[in-house]
Each structure stands twice: as structure tokens, then as C-alpha cells.
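Subject: sequence -> C-alpha cells, single chain

Hey, anyone have a minute? Need the predicted structure for the following. Not urgent.
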Amino acid sequence: MLEIQQLHFSYDKKTPVLNGLNLTVQQGDFLALIGPNGCGKTTLIKLICDLLEKQKGSIKLDGLDHNDFKVKNAVLYLPSDDVLPEFLTGKEYINLMLKMYNASMDEERFHRLVKYYSFDSALDVLIEEYSNGMKKKVQLIAAMLIDPEILIIDETLNGMDVESREITKLLLMNFSGPNKIVIMCSHDLHLLEEMCNKVVILYQGKIHTEKKIDDVRQTTSLLSIFRGIMNHEDLKNEIISS
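Reply:
Had a minute. Here:
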């Protein structure tokens, strides 16, 4: 279980990005994390991954602090920026990631993933020659082989062709299960509604909405909820004045 309590963070120590955020994510949750730009999604992810130093509050996985080595080894983050070591080939990158996470190579699964993505001819090519979609594929192949307890995905399906997106959707939904936590950020609300079983919407550094996706489907949609947030008067004024 991932437990976040009274989490505060500010980049300038004046304007809060996260303001006393509380969140519990259970094993088995495939969580959609959404909100307006600047609401703190990426900041929250980086704090969970110990890429930023929290200023107040706690982040724990199964009772262990987020900067404990066991927790760091259990969390894998696929960022949106596609910054990969371009001097490595795809195969070298995959082997490096496995080594970093102390994970062994499952040859059968490796070849199956390579086949799914038609990636065999790209394995020995330098990453500097990869398209954005190819970079996403090699990241996902590595992630599926590492098999982390918590997988955090930030716009990972961007840049993929339709077939690769469908393959990735199936892989991620198959990956999620009773012993896993998946947290996914995307501007594609229909995709999130299709894949996830829970949604958290951040607004002004706090959780605005937290629902099961099944409950959302029965009464409304993620898009309708998000539009409702965007209709807040203070946010409309901010948009008009910007």
C-alpha cells in the first residue's frame, strides 16, 4: 500500500504546489492521476520516486519510507520526456535497466515483448536513431521485464502508432493485478476511463475528486468531471487574464 500523508511542496518556498495532500493507493489499483496543467501531478510523481526532496509530510510503501532502498527498487517511473541514453543500443538499454533494478532477464518474455512490438530489428540500433514511439517501446519492454511493484506512467502512449497503443493497453492491463500498483497520467481521458479502475483529480495542490471508475461510468464520465473543474470561477478568471 502506498500512503501519502500531509504532503507539502513548493519550488520557491512561497507558492505551494502541493498543499497538505493525502492519498492512499492500494495494491490492485490502476490509478488515473489527472488535473489541470500546473496542479502538481508531475511534482507528486517525482516526490514519490524521490527525484525531489519533500518538505513536509510522509510517503510510505508498506510502511517503509519512500527513500528506503527497497522502495526505490520497487518503483519504476516512465516519464513523458523520452530522455534516454542515446549512446546505447536498445538491447544495451534494456540490460542496463535490468541491472539497475537487480532483475534477471526472462528470455522467453523478452522475445515475446520484442515480437509484440516488432522490435527485433531495432535492438542493435543506437537510441539516438529512435523515433519517439520507438523510445516508448524500449522503455515499456524494459519495464515489463523488470516487473516492478509500482509502475508510474506519464503520457507514455504519446507518439505511438495505433497498433502499438493497443498492444501497450493490453500489456498494461495484463500487468496490473492484485499485487501491483499502476499510476497513469494522460490527457486522454477516454483512454484512462477504459484502462483504470480508480481516478484521482488534483486541483490547487490537493485532491479534488477520488472515485472508482465504475462509479464514474454509472453517472457521468471523466471528461464531464474534468469540465466541471475547469468551470470553477477562479480558474476561468486565471485563463482569461493569462
